[in-house]
Amino acid sequence: AIEDGRIVKAGKDDEIFSLRSDDTRVIDLKGKMVLPGFNESHMHLLNYAYSLKKVDCSGAKSIDEIIERAKSFIKENKPKPGEWILGRGWNQILFEEKRELTRHDLDRISTEHPICFTRICEHAVAANTMAIERAGVTSKTPQPLGGHFDVDEKGEPLGMFRETARYMIYEIIPDASVEDMKAMLKDAARIAAGYGVTSIQTDDFETFASKDYQKIIKAYKELAKEGA
Fold first, then answer.
1. Per residue in 19-65, pLDDT tens?
2. Residues 145, 151, 156, 162, Cα dihedral to 10°
3. 39, 130, 165, 209 - which has most CB atoms within 10 Å?
4. What is the pTM of this model?
5. Residue-wise DSSP of the chain
């Protein structure tokens, strides 16, 4: 028995049918099961929402496939020159080339946009030449404590940034605005609801490099106030 969107009682047919009134609607599920909304006890909703604005690199079988997906993303979304192109989910173990991405690979996507693609493990990123130049990383840049960026035989950055070195790139990627965050969260919440997830405990404060949690709280509070 469901009332005002909530399951108020469960039991045998005669027990539940006794609750019927003239305006009760009976739905025959023909043997299927109805469940209350799921609670997701630990996820990163804003991070997931942010990922929907990135090139989906998951499952790609080659570097060429990554490049084609990114080119299609640019063609579809039409970012202005100089705007970041972000991606996530690549895994070189699946690549026919059996190697990681380099800046030279990502330069084949675009030299008009800084590019940063996060590996599936989230512990390494690949950046193109423009992104590396914006970060000011050169052969003279010291390696960061707790991380490492790959270099070629001349000592020049090759494009891979690992562990804490990721933040050499992440820190120059602009945060989303509060309005952008709100739009992203609404999109992600709609997708969650579509799977029957009706409540979530979420840790979002490290989604962006600035870790400006006040901005993120503001986005959530405004959405709540708007009933969104």
1. 999 999 999 999 998 888 999 999 999 999 999 999 999 999 999 99
2. -40
3. 165
4. 0.81
5. -EETTEE-----HHHHHTT--TT------TT----PPEEEEEE-HHHHHHHTTSEE-TT--SHHHHHHHHHHHHHHH-PPTT--EEEEEE-GGGSTT-S---HHHHHTT-SSS-EEEEETTSSEEEE-HHHHHHHT--TTSPPPTTEEEEE-TTS-EEEEEEETTHHHHHTTSPPPPHHHHHHHHHHHHHHHHHTTEEEEEE--TTSSTT--HHHHHHHHHHHHHTT-
